Amino acid sequence: MSATITTTVTAPSATDVLQVTPLENAPFGARITLPAYTQDPADLNEDDFQRLYSAVHQYLVVVIPDQAKLKPSSQYKLTKLFDPTCEGAYGHSKEFRHEKSVLRRDGHSTPSQPQVQILGQGRHDGHEGVPDLVLRHPTHMSFHHDPLTEDEMANGYTRFYRWHIDSALYGLAPPVATTLLGIDCPVDKNQKIRYEDTGEEITTAKAATAFASGAIAFDNLSDEDKEFALNTTVVYAPHPYIFISPARATSDALTMVSEGKELPLDELPEWEQDKIKRLPLVWTNPVTGKHHMQVHGCCIWKLETPNGTLELEEARNTVHRLMRPNISPDRIYCHDWNNGDLVIFFNRGVWHSVTGQFEEGGRRLMHQCNIASGVDPICKK
User: What is the residue extent of each domain of the chain?
Assistant: First the structure.
């Protein structure tokens, strides 16, 4: 793909070319209006796809409305267009379903297009030909060390579930882009997130998806921390989602509480040294040239720094210190879902998190796709 940004920024209208409109009152993000010749973003001509490709890298999160009928085959095709090196494997591969993985209950593969995952909440029998389909929205109650009380949740409070990058982080390279389609996303109330360390609060629609910019995170580091980040490598645990399964997350969902509960390496499924992921702490955006601090704080194992290796607890404490300012209310974008929203995000430039919880009988239906890349991200110093 060309590294030239050719994004057209105008007010949305039915025109002959794809239009990009920056989101109002948000630190990043844009809304896309498709050209008049198609309502399927997988069928964009070369010039319009280049506009979309550039917009995703520049604005990091883009929203295309009115896509509720988008076919899984089109979603897969569109996702794959963002990375010519990808070979078509879902970003988490088969380990996504391992019985001990923290991800195992978070989705169901679409039979006609296995790379597209069905996500949501409640019973949706027969959707995409899947019988007895019951979905579970992931919530902090089963993942955080100290979850909210029943009274707090009854009073409308929720939490970020897990700040992360979509990636297996073992064997496979992180996907370039993720597409997330809201098919049926009823919202009957708002929920609140309280920052326990500052007392700040934000209000979002129930089960909004929160995004933080890795570029904003890097830009706001001190000069000393920038130098540290540019010269640090993150080492992820083998089979990281299994490794952390007995542990629990911090209340801000940025990393795990260090209590020695992780699975011993000899109790993990068989693993290979050369499949352990060692990725730079900073990834360079191939379109804008910006540096993005990109780290999955829950899955880290070690940090290789200019001054030596930081082991698990110290590595977690270090990335938590670097990450925490960048989930503050003025630095994040929370997407409040409307039926038919197709969100495309630059997975190598943002972190994101599920929020919210549903009452008994609550329903939601979404499709998600990301595809493992053929190459790892790099840091161009």
Answer: 1-381
103-138 pLDDT, tens digit each: 555 578 899 999 999 999 999 989 999 998 999 999
Which pairing describes strands 177-184 and 157-158: parallel, antiparallel, or unpaired?
unpaired
Question: Residues 282-311: pLDDT tens digits?
Answer: 999 999 999 999 999 999 999 999 999 999
Residues of the chain below pLDDT 50: 1-13, 91-92, 96-98
**Which CA distances in Å does 334 have to 25, 193, 246?**
11, 11, 29
Q: Which residues are registered as beta bridge partners of 202?
A: 193
* Alpha carbon distance 267, 244 (integer Å): 12
Give residue 105's pLDDT. Answer: 56
What CATH code is assigned to 1-381?
3.60.130.10
Which residue intervals of 82-144 are DSSP H helices? none
What is the model's pLDDT at position 103? 52
**CA-CA distances (angstroms) from residue 350 to 177, 233, 291?**
10, 18, 11
Pairwise CA distance, residues 328 & 333, whole Å: 10
Radius of gyration of the chain (CA): 20
Question: Could you give the residue ranges of the DSSP H alpha helices within 31-169?
Answer: 46-59, 72-81, 150-154
Q: Answer whether 369's CB lies under 8 Å from 115's CB.
A: yes
Give the span between the Cα atoms of 303 and 299, in whole angstroms: 12
Task: Using alpha carbons, list the distances in angstroms from residue 18 to 21, 174, 214.
Answer: 10, 28, 26
Question: What is the number of residues in the chain?
Answer: 381
CA nearest to 319, candidates 354, 279, 359, 271: 279
Could you give the angle at the alpha carbon of 329 between the alpha carbons of 326 and 332, nearest 5°?
Answer: 55
How far, in whole angstroms, is CA 249 from its chain's centroid?
A: 17
Q: What string of DSSP letters covers 178-232?
A: EEEEEEE-----EEEEE-TTT--EEEEETTPEEEEEHHHHHHTS-HHHHHHHHT-
Helix (H, G, I), strand (E, B) or coil at 291: strand
Q: Is the pTM of this model over 0.90?
A: yes
